[in-house]
Amino acid sequence: MGKQFLEITEKKEVEELIAELSVKHxxxxxxxxxxxxxxxxxxxxxxxxTDIFSTLDIPPFDRATMDGYAVIASDTFYAAEDNxxxxxxxxxxxxxxxPSPSQYxxxxxxxxxxxxxxxxxxxNAVVKVENTSDYEEEEEEEENxxxxxxxxxKPVAPAxxxxxxxxDIKRGEKIVVKGTRLTPRETGVLAACGIREVxxxxxxxxxVISTGxxxxxxxxxxxxxxxxxxxxxxxxxxxxxxxxEVCSGSGCVPLFLGVAKDNLEDLSAKLNESxxxxxxxxxxxxxxxxxxxxxxxxxxxxxxxxxVHGVDIKPxxxxxxxxxxGKPVFGLPGNPTSALVTFNLFVAPLxxxxxxxxxxxxxxxxxxxxxxxxxxxxxxxxxxxEKGRNEYVLVKVKVNLAKTxxxxxxxxxxxxxLTGSGAITTLSSADGYIFVEKGKxxxxxxxxxxxxxxx
Amino acid sequence: MGKQFLEITEKKEVEELIAELSVKHxxxxxxxxxxxxxxxxxxxxxxxxTDIFSTLDIPPFDRATMDGYAVIASDTFYAAEDNxxxxxxxxxxxxxxxPSPSQYxxxxxxxxxxxxxxxxxxxNAVVKVENTSDYEEEEEEEENxxxxxxxxxKPVAPAxxxxxxxxDIKRGEKIVVKGTRLTPRETGVLAACGIREVxxxxxxxxxVISTGxxxxxxxxxxxxxxxxxxxxxxxxxxxxxxxxEVCSGSGCVPLFLGVAKDNLEDLSAKLNESxxxxxxxxxxxxxxxxxxxxxxxxxxxxxxxxxVHGVDIKPxxxxxxxxxxGKPVFGLPGNPTSALVTFNLFVAPLxxxxxxxxxxxxxxxxxxxxxxxxxxxxxxxxxxxEKGRNEYVLVKVKVNLAKTxxxxxxxxxxxxxLTGSGAITTLSSADGYIFVEKGKxxxxxxxxxxxxxxx
Lengths: 455, 455
Prior knowledge:
The structure is a homodimer.
Chain A: H1 11-29, E1 33-37, E2 52-53, E3 63-64, E4 68-71, E5 85-93, E6 109-113, E7 125-128, E8 132-134, E9 149-152, E10 162-163, E11 174-176, H2 184-192, E12 197-201, E13 205-211, E14 215-216, E15 231-232, H3 235-245, E16 253-260, H4 264-276, E17 281-286, H5 295-303, E18 305-309, E19 313-314, E20 320-324, E21 327-332, H6 336-357, H7 363-366, E22 374-379, E23 383-384, E24 390-399, E25 412-416, H8 424-429, E26 432-436, E27 442-443, E28 448-453
Parallel strand pairs in A: 5-6, 13-16, 13-17, 14-15, 17-21, 22-25
Antiparallel strand pairs in A: 1-12, 2-11, 3-10, 4-6, 4-7, 5-9, 8-9, 18-20, 20-21, 22-28, 23-27, 24-25, 24-26, 26-28
Helix pairs in contact in A: 1-6, 3-6, 4-5
C-alpha cells in the first residue's frame, strides 16, 4: 500500500487497490456504534453491532391459537359426532385478559377461550369452537339451570391448539446476530421482545469539499446577485446526494464542508477540518484553475500519502486517491460528469463496503440475492402444502456448498420454515417465500422452485 | 368497483382490483405537493410536481475551458512551431475573477486565462498553454522591458476552448420536467441554477393501526411490568418499517395510530382518526379475538364499502380490502407472517404505485431498468471514442418502438450524449454509460453494448 503511483494508473489496478482499501478500512471503523430507537424507523436497514437477546419468553404464557374451549384432553377422548362429551363451562377468557383463579380447569370442566388468550391452569388442550355446540336449554335438567354446558364433538390430543410459553422465543435466546442488517422482520422480532432501542454501526461520515475560486455554494447568494465571474457549485449537491444514495438505510452521511479556494492553505485547512470532525472518508472535487491539479496531492502529502494520481479513463483522468491518518481521500475532477463517473467507479464501491455490505451476516451466500427479486432454487427437502390452497411457504435460502444432491454445487437450496405464521421467529428466519399453487400438495426434493426474496 | 365480494376472492382477482385502485387513487392524490430544500438531501428521490425552469444562463458568461491565453483568433492564423505569433500579455484572469476594463483584448494583445475564468471582451478564442511559451528576457529590446509577451505556436479557430454563456442551459429553459424523479443528476442541475427549494409530490401518508385487546405497544410498558395476558405488538413495527421500505426516497410515511381494542367503537374511532389526519391509505392488522374477524368489515361498511373479504391464499386468507371516502383500507391478518405476506402481495404494489412509480417520467420505457444494473442494448448510431483511452460514453436509453433497424422492436437503443463532461446538462440527460475499451475507437450502429444504468 505504501507504493506511490505518480503516473497514470490502470483502471483495473485502481479498482483492486480500492477493494483492498475497503476491507482494511471497514475493519477499522467497525468499532463505532450508536443507539437508535426502533419506533421511529431509525433502526431500519442498520447493522446490529452486538448480538441481541430476548429478556422474555415469547409467547409470555401458554396461549390458545384458536377460538374454542380450554379442556383437559382426556375429557374429550371418547367424544364423537353422535356421542359428544358434555363439559361444564366455568367461565371465559378473552385475549388480553388473564384467567382468574376460579377458572382452574378440573375434570369435567372447561373454559371458553379466544385466540391469543392465556390458557387457564389445569387445561392442556383447546377444542375449536367449530367442533362444539352450546348445550340446549330444552335438554337441561331443573338443577342445571344456572350451569352453562357445552358439547364436544371431536377428541383433541394434549397440547392441541396451544402455543406454549417460550416456544417461539426463550428468555435469554439470541434473537439478532451481530452484523445483521435490520429489516422489518428483525425489527418485528425486537418489538415482540419489548426492545425499544438497539445498538447499531454508525453510518460512515463522508466529508465533501468543493474546490474552485469561482464556486459559490447554491443558496448562499441570490441568483440576481451572483457575482460576475462566479458560478454555482454543482458537485457539492451531486456528490452529497450520491453519498446519500449509495446504500440506503445503512448508508453514509455526507458532511459538506463548503468550498475551498485553490490554494494549499485552504485545501490543507479543509483536510484538517474533515479529520477533526471525524470523517471516515474525504471527497474533494474540482480545482480547475491553473496548476490546481497539483495542489490537492501536495496537501495530501503534507499529512499522508498519494496512492493514485491519474487513471487511464475518460472522463475522469485526473482522479486522485490518497490516505491521510488511515482515511481515504478522493480527489474527483471538477467537471460534473467526470465527478459522477469517478464517484460511481471508485468511491461508491468503497462506501457500499464500509457502510454495511462488509458486515452483513451471510453476505457471502446472499450477496447476489436482491430484495424483491425472484431467483431459481432447488427444494432441499420435500415441502408440503395444504390441499386446495394457494400457499406461500416461507423458506430459508442456502448456497449448496456440498457436491452431493439434490442440487449442483453453488446452486441455491431452499428449506421450508416450519414454525408457522403465528411464530415471530418465522419472520426473521425466512429469506423469502415460494408459491405453491392450489392443486399441488408436494414439492419434491430436488424440484426447481422460484423464490421471492424478502430482504 | 362497487361490486361486493363477500366470499373468498381469487388471488388474481384481488391483484387486478388493486392495480385498478392504484391507478385511480394515484391520480387523486397527485395534487398534494410540498416544498423541500435541496441542500439537506430532502429533494433526493422525490418526484418534481412542476416543470422547473432556469432563471440564469449556464455558464453565466463566456468561459475558458483550458488554461492558456485569450486571443483574437486571427492573430494566430499564421502561427507555427518555427514561426510563432508574438502577442502582448495585457494581464491575467483567474477562475472566480472578472476581467477588468483594461483587459479588453485588442489586435496584437492577449490575456492569460485559467480554466473556468470569464473571457475578456475582444477575445474570441483560447490558446492552450501547452502551445505557448513566455517570450524570453534575452530576446527583449530595451524599450520592451516592462512589457510581458508570449509566443503562440499553433493557430486557433474562433470559439476554440470557449464555452459560451447559456450554451449549456439558457435562461428560461426547462431543466426538470414535471414528474421526474430527482436523482443526484437532477439535483446537480438545480444546484447549478442556484435553486434551493423545489416543489415535489408529498409522500403518501399511511395510517397504521394494530388491533387486539392483548396488544401492548413496545416501549409503553417495561418488560418487567408487562401485564399478565398481554403481549407486545409486533405488527406496528413490521408494517411501519415495511411502509418505509416500499419505495425509498419518494416513499411513504407511516403514521402509527396505536392499538385499537377489538370493538366496533374503537375500530370506527381509529378509522375516523386516520381520515382526519389526512391518511392516504389505512392499514389495520390483527383482531384475533373471537368474532373479531367481522368487526373491521362492519366498521368499514359504516363509512364506506368492502371490496374483498377473504383471499384463497395461505397464509393470509382473512385479508380485507375496503374503500372509505376514496381511501383504500387494508385489513391484514394478525399473525406477523400472514401480515407480512399480504403486505408484500397486496399493499406494497399500491404504495409503490402511488408513491411515485406512476408519475415517473419515462416509466413505461424505463420501468424495467434498474439502478446500477447492467443491461444489453444496441447502438442507435455510430459512437466515437477517443483513441487510446478507456472511455465511458454517457448515453440516453430508449426503447425501440419502430420496426426498423438497427435493433428489433422492443429492444433498447442507446444514443451518446454529445454535450461533453463540462456541461451540466450532460448529467441530467444521461440514463447511464457504456464503456469503450482502449484500442476501440468506434462502436458501430447496430452493435450490441452493455449499459450501466444510473438511476
